[in-house]
Amino acid sequence: MKIGVVTFPGTLDDRDAQRAVRLAGGTPVPLWHADTNLHDVDAVVLPGGFSYGDYLRCGAIAAQAPVMQTIIEKANQGLPVLGICNGFQVLVESHLLPGGLIRNENQHFICRDQTLRVENTSTAWTNQFQLNEEIVIPLKNGEGGYIADAETLKRLEGENLITFRYVDVNPNGSMNDIAGLRNAKGNVVGLMPHPEHAVEAGFGPDMPEAMRSGVDGLKFFTSVIHSLVNA
Amino acid sequence: MPKIIVEVMPKADLLDPQGKAVANSLNRKGHTEITAVRIGKRIELHYDETPTEAQLEEAKAFAADFLSNGVIEDVVAVTVEA
Amino acid sequence: MLNKKTATNVDTTKEAKNTPDKHQPWKELGLKLEEYDEIKTILGRRPTSAELAMYSVMWSEHCSYKSSKIYLRQFGEKVTPEMTKNLMVGMGENAGVVDIGEGWAVTFKVESHNHPSYIEPFQGAATGVGGIVRDILTMGARPIAVMDQLRFGAPENPDTRRVVDGVVAGISFYGNCLGLPNIGGETVFDKVYQGNPLVNALSVGALRHEDLKLAKASNPGDLVILFGARTGADGIGGVSVLASETFDSTGPTKRPAVQVGDPFAEKVLIECCLELYKAQVVAGIQDLGGAGLSCATSELASNGQAGMRVQLQNVLLRDDSLTPEEILMSESQERMMAIVPKKDKAAFEAIVNKWEVEYSILGEVIKEPRLYINWGDEEIVNVPPRTVAHDGPVYDRPVAEPKYQKALNKNTTKNLEKAETPEELATQLIQIVTSPNQASKNYITDQYDHYVGGNTALAMPDDAGMVRVDETSSLGIAIATDANGRYGQLDPYAGAQLALAEAYRNVATSGAVPAAVTNCLNFGSPENPEVMWQFKQATAGLADGCLELGIPVTGGNVSFYNQTGDVAIHPTPVVGVLGVIDDVARRIPSGWQDAGHNIYLLGTTEEELDGSVWSEVIHDHLGGLPPKVKLQEELKLAQALQAASVQGLLASAHDLSEGGLAQALVESTTRFNVGARVFLDELEEKNKISKTAVLFSETTARVLVTVGREDDVKFVGLCEQRGIPITRIGVTDTEPTLEIQNIASWPLATLKAASEATLPELFA
Hints:
The structure holds three protein chains of three kinds. By secondary structure, chain A is an alpha/beta fold. Chain A contains five helices and eleven strands. In chain A, the strands form two sheets. In chain A, strands 2-1-3-4-11-10-9-6-7 form a nine-stranded mixed beta sheet, with helices on both faces. The relative contact order of chain A is 0.18. Chain B is an alpha+beta fold. Chain B has a single domain, classed as Mth169, Chain: A. Chain B is built from two helices and three strands, in the order E-H-E-H-E. Classes of the chains: A alpha/beta, B alpha+beta, C alpha+beta. Chains A and B meet through loops of A and helix 1 of B.
């Protein structure tokens, strides 16, 4: 299964996302921001980082990149796309997901092991989770406060599009504790926390059993492989 | 230098954490008469010649769909400065 | 690509010959009359204003190490062949390079950005990170982690908040945007740093042996290419102004001294450089930091024993009004200079264009060891590059033991009131572990990304940071840095050794084998003989200590003039130790994760409270002599930890240092919420020390470890066989409580909350 990982100038977690794909049993394919060709990948990950320095607004300039024009077109046709952190911001700026992400409520960049609740498992990226399963995934962002107007929020809640919610602590002031969203089809998912940092024991978040042993993020990647195999 | 000035503000009804932090700080410094602070952006587009009406319209268009994000921000002014 | 500018009134070499007596502002540029005369002797004429700019900035303390050079030599001299056998590049290059096996090498260095960080904390700290990362990149390595050693003024002073906020935000902003995990560091508050905070930044990088790059231009005909950000009026004269004189409350007077960093540009530059290295199209490379183009051109040529012809008008500018002198001195960030063979020009251009990095060809390497710089048709620099870069002035400055030293050393803690009752001991314990220096630093470190890269095996609050270098073999490195200015003030020789010993011990507790040393020597004014004495003592202590421990100094940095008014900071030699671990899966955590393990204290505890946190927090006292340095014991202890780690006997290991046993107990229990029952009577009796010393003494060569029941006999045997004093002081427990028998018992949630509350209460 070929899973594309996009590198924009300023992308930071592209190598981590590629590793996650590999550990899940897929084949990572690097995609370059200036190239409109997706090289026949079966799914795409938009990794974290500070694309184009996050100047103007986080993800705004990346959303205009040549590679995104193809991704937007294919995503609308059902290509599975996962946006992580800056990737989530790119999805929002590309209008593939609604709302916006603003500076954290406490004004600081936050790096912490974050508990999330999986509230929707009928997506390409979450089908291996149990509904309402609580998972621990590192969160690290400066502009992760999810924001949307009342009408959009109502629709997100009503149509069951909220895929992840923060549990225990809402770290960045996100409305309705929203950590991640899906589109109506369930092929596009975006979230602020970083599943690619919880895929390998020894390098993941601290868990009750042992330090740095968390691998809950791996299921994002096994989910997409599962959904592609069964497509 | 002729310019087009684009001014972008966070939407009035949305939280502006940056503005809130600055307001709190000003209040702490004793400026209690300040009731709120909102922080936006001023974007300057530089031109060699005074921008035409058509260029101004063009600027208004990309100000709305690229220089600002309508979900969280409003373009409050797009003006020519000769 | 040429700038559209015309030369204005430039001072040429021709002009210099014709007007030998023209007055020049050598003094304002920080030069001494003898130094100015020396330049005239070298050139056989007066320097042009461009040459004067170059010499003044390159001969400044910061760039030339003129006051420290005679002492730094001993780091290269006090060595054995065994110590240097893995050293691929030693001192003098941008950073030292150490062979860590399996074809891998690592390069690491710590550098100061103290003065800029006081003037503009955010940009000062940010560009400090940027600068050290470029040093690492210059060696051909991919930067893989950063750490910061921060020292601020008194926490309750209002200005401290400004500096803390700015510095932490600056490091967070720049480091996080670069995608480098921040894996550790130090944060210390002390009023001696009030007007002069210390912002030291460390970076480490990894490279394959064959990718090693050096900053030299040796092949005539090769192109000299400047690439990265454009050159602007950033920190013009910053190096000279900032590092060669103290500043008062009005700040520096000469020129804009602050540089503004763009981490995005640096991230792109990193990836671009790594691709250039891989394509093997650069013969030499140098980053532009302090002294900008003056430094890069003269050092590349001098290192390559060659020369260079440069057309300064080819430099891409952000601001067309810059004069040639300003272009030479500009410290605009995120710039690199590459030496590229002509045959590789097209390949070079293809890669920089791919990354949308701007570049311009400034000139060529020439055989004649002479640096010629033209401004259009006019020659404005014509100098032997060695005289600029390497043969600067060297001073043997007067030294004198401080007049206060003997009285300070006599004023011991002997007569300070010790805690005796359980209540007093319990109260002091809480006071100490919640004091700003000992409290949890989460408020700061939670603002740093320690996950990016996916290779972080240990990070703060562990004793050492650890990253995997090779994903296949799990080969990794550990780094710890330490310094204790209070110890340094009491005895700079011992203070430097204690910093070394602690960093060494921290690396050993992580399971890695200590391999190399870097340092950042923060001191007051070298023109003050008492400061110079401290510097002399500290460097001797460090060099002697490294020799005794058998690990080489690979490089470092000296920062003088750290003082406000006439009052110098405490001597603060920050020492970083790098260790190698063949499999990062073997790393030893510092926190406790399992109940039912035996807790052992390794080493002997003595009545050593002088200079301690206890004396500071409880009595606001500084005097006496710091804890004894015990390097032979440190060696033995490290070897025992190493052996136990290889056999998988240790569940955890935590070094004992500031705050003593009490601090280690609180940190180890609260880390993963695993409690302990601890009994200290045996320790008190066996070591014949006071209860206060049992809890708070800072005797060195001690480590707290936990061992599972199944490994107990083996581990105790291992220690006894190696002559390591070992005392069982308790057992870990499922109950989330720290119980110190006959003293007190605390729920871990209370301890953790108290420790984590201190910094947010001060700064959030």
